[in-house]
Fold this sequence. Notes:
The protein has two helices and eight strands, in the order H-E-E-E-E-E-E-H-E-E. It is of the alpha+beta class. The protein has one domain: Immunoglobulin-like (Sandwich). The strands form two sheets. Strands 3, 4, 5, 7 and 8 form a five-stranded antiparallel β-sheet that branches. A hairpin with a 5-residue loop joins strand 7 and strand 8. The relative contact order is 0.21.
Amino acid sequence: MPENSAVNSKFVFAVAGGIAGAAIILFIVMGSGIFNFSGSPTGQVAQSQPLDLHLSLVDVKPEKTDERTADLNIAFNVYNPNRNTALLETIHYTIYIDKLKMTSGDIGVSPEGFVASQEGIFPIVSNTTVTLKDSRPSERNNLTADAWDSMFNGEAQYRIEGTFAYKLTGTSFQFSAGEKDFRLTYP
């Protein structure tokens, strides 16, 4: 059984490495201008300002683990309106009910340096949307009791605030970076 486990983890790492490699190649090819999807003659690339990615909230769902703790499951959609691939690095968020912080979390990682791992970075091809999910614990205490209870009786109004960071590829290996604040409500 331990040998089988080692083989399975090697396979998982090999697949993850292959996916990361394919994403990097796609990122380079789409950003290099080798393929011209702009409708302009080959060699002429339409210059335009990159557009911000669009972040929206799909769902916030509490899942009780016992009488004092729950997992808050959250799902975001991120849309890339640009003609080049975008790399979503991080979404940092905090979930509130009224003025009470229920939990906070991060999706993705900020790469450090040129040779940093690409794990935790999400490529978003032109005009597509990715859905990213996360789950964080929330604890019921004297301060949050009413807000925590409202999650399970269907009365909670969630406010999600945070920032997301991304890079957009351009022609000739040019990148533009963006970091944007957001404030969303659910439902």
